[in-house]
Amino acid sequence: MKVSPYIPEPLPPAGIDWESHIPQIASANRALARYDGILQAIPNPRLLLSPLLTQEAVLSSRIEGTQASLEDVLRFEANPREPIGDAALADIREIINYREALNVAVEALKARRLDTALICDLHRILLSGSRGMDREPGCVRTIQNFIGRDARIEHAIFVPPAPEDLPRALADWEAYLQQGELDILVQLSILKAQFELIHPFCDGNGRIGRMLVPLIMYEKGLIGSPMFYISAYLERNRPAYYERLLAVSRDRDWNGWITFFLHAIEEQAGTNGQKAKAILDLYDEMKRTVPEATRSQYAIAAIDALFGAPIFSSAEFYERSAIPKVSGAKILKDLEGNDVVEILQRGAGRRASTYAFPRLLAITEGNRL
């Protein structure tokens, strides 16, 4: 049976059963507040949580089919001249673009509001130099797109709104973004779902939709830093994620989606908080360990460099930390001798050595909390 294009209803949608959501609204908001309390205690969250941002970019891109891991991305950034296959490079480029777009958004929100124009700017960055660069980066689509198992719209699982309906749908979405609501997390859940169902771009809609979660949280004052990582939950629950979105378009089942999304927020707030706290604890431990191991005036600069990039080349370490090469080489030797870092690849000739900070990698990937 041919699927008709989705016709977005005005926001907020009718039929939200607010009373039934009250317990979950309360628990999700409590979990998010606890997470924000941990964020507030971190002295430099953009530095210390930067590996978590890269992992978020990895997982959000994996939902769309990329195969690159966090270690793949970090190894590439440590040694971008190392030979790598075209498919792997394309995956890594998409992930780096995601992270760059989110960083640009964070800076932009210091001076402007989140709106459709800014989202188009982020979309342009997301697709720059990647597999989607021929899919009208930064432009709202002017063609009909669809999601299906093959290239025939007759077999589509979901057909987004027709191009002529996009201006009205996006204007309504943006108006709802700017207004108040009984609960901001419910509002966020509606905004995220409606954006992905509008599917305003030819490519990258899911990634932009997931990127909007921390940006809206930040703009609405729910978190003090725009650092919330939801893709791990959505990647783990991908079939339910897609089915709940489809149920909105097919059955107008907003309550099912809101329940799913609030649970995602609650669970990921807990996981994110555990990771952020573990990173902060590790940072505090390193502030004791590294000065003792290195006896160097550059110990704090070295620590910050380790947390900014848990896989790095020796050359990158010297540059990132601004430590003179001779002093930096001694620090790396001392850190290796004290099992703080380990060598992944010895340097040879003009090639720098590649190091890892394994304890930070384990926290970031969720292997040690």
Structure notes:
The chain is mainly alpha-helical. It has two domains: 18-275, Orthogonal Bundle (Fic-like fold), CATH 1.10.3290.10; 281-364, Arc Repressor Mutant, subunit A (Orthogonal Bundle), CATH 1.10.10. Helices cover 62% and strands 4% of the residues. The chain has 16 helices and five strands. It has helices spanning 18-41, 45-48, 50-63, 70-78, 86-108, 116-127, 166-178, 184-198, 205-219, 231-236, 238-251, 254-294, 299-308, 314-321, 325-337, 358-364; strands spanning 147-148, 156-158, 311-313, 342-345, 354-356. The strands form two sheets. Strands 3-5-4 form a three-stranded antiparallel β-sheet. Strands 1-2 form a two-stranded antiparallel sheet. Strand 1 (147-148) and strand 2 form a beta hairpin. Helix 14 (314-321) crosses helix 15 (325-337). The N and C termini lie far apart (48 Å). 43% of the residues are buried. The model has no long low-confidence stretch (mean pLDDT 94).
CA distance, first residue to last residue = 48 Å
The share of residues in helices is: 55-70%
Strand order of the largest sheet: 3-5-4
Class by SSE composition: mainly alpha
> Treating each run of at least 4 consecutive H or I residues as one helix, how many helices?
16
User: What's the structural domain tally?
Assistant: 2
Number of DSSP-assigned strands: 5
CATH class group of the largest domain:
Mainly Alpha
The CATH fourth-level homologous superfamily of the largest domain: Fido-like domain
**Radius of gyration from CA coordinates:** 22 Å
CATH architecture of the largest domain: Orthogonal Bundle
Give the overall silhouette: globular
Main sheet makeup = 3 strands, antiparallel
Low-confidence stretches: none
Taken in chain order, the helices and strands follow as HHHHHHEEHHHHHHHEHHEEH
